[in-house]
Design a protein that fits this description.
This protein is of the alpha+beta class. The strands form two sheets. The chain has a four-stranded mixed sheet. Strands 4-6-5 form a three-stranded antiparallel sheet. Helix 1 packs across helix 3. The longest helix has 27 residues. The chain starts with a strand and ends in a 6-residue tail after the last helix.
């Protein structure tokens, strides 16, 4: 069995490796935790630039040397990842101003899987297959994106993007299930959506 770092960002933030939960930092909104989350968020789209990381982590603060602060945070994160029990690695590859996660440590990130599944549903021509893919995406969305991080601009933006995708997904599914008269499934989808977003008029 492959050792995969399983990362949950929908409905909360948890890490699992070799069947054990990892604790990165007791402070779940620390700069090192946020740096790690930002890196993982971009594991499937070519990484994130140092400039974007500096903006996300220090955009609103009056830190004088933001590049130096980022380098210190990267250094601290590497130490925390080793201490948490991940294999020896530099973890973060920096090349031409782009930061990427070490591909030798395989990851499974729920929010990336969710977004990819939504995208493939949107491009699917067959209605039946499209709905099967949407149903898979619906199951992947177990809650709002990093609910504890709502005070951070980058997380709030990502949260809204994911929520909008989820709403589209639920609306597509409900419309289809109503048309097909699959009322039991329809009720299940609407009920779980109402549990996550009780104030929304489903």
């Amino acid at each position: 069995m492959k050792n995969i770092l399983k990362v949950r960002m929908l409905g909360g933030f948890t890490l699992e490796y070799k069947g054990k939960e990892l604790v990165l930092d007791r402070n779940n909104v620390s700069k090192t935790t946020q740096l790690f989350q930002l890196l993982l968020l971009h594991t499937q789209d070519g990484g994130i630039s140092k400039a974007a990381l500096i903006d996300a982590l220090y955009g609103r603060s009056d830190v004088e040397n933001k590049n130096g602060s980022l380098n210190n945070t990267i250094f601290r994160l590497r130490k925390q990842l080793t201490a948490a029990g991940l294999p020896e690695s530099s973890y973060i590859n920096i090349n031409g101003g782009m930061c990427t996660w070490d591909p030798d440590i395989e990851t499974s990130v729920d929010v990336c899987d969710f977004k990819q599944t939504i995208e493939s549903a949107r491009h699917e021509k067959s209605q039946k297959t499209k709905m099967e893919i949407y149903a898979k995406a619906w199951k992947l969305y177990t809650g709002e994106f990093l609910p504890d991080m709502m005070g951070e601009d980058w997380a709030a933006v990502e949260n809204i993007a994911c929520r909008d995708m989820y709403f589209d997904c639920v609306e597509e599914l409900c419309h289809y299930l109503k048309t097909e008269e699959k009322f039991e499934e329809l009720h299940r989808v609407a009920h779980s959506a109402a549990e996550i977003y009780p104030l929304y008029d489903w």
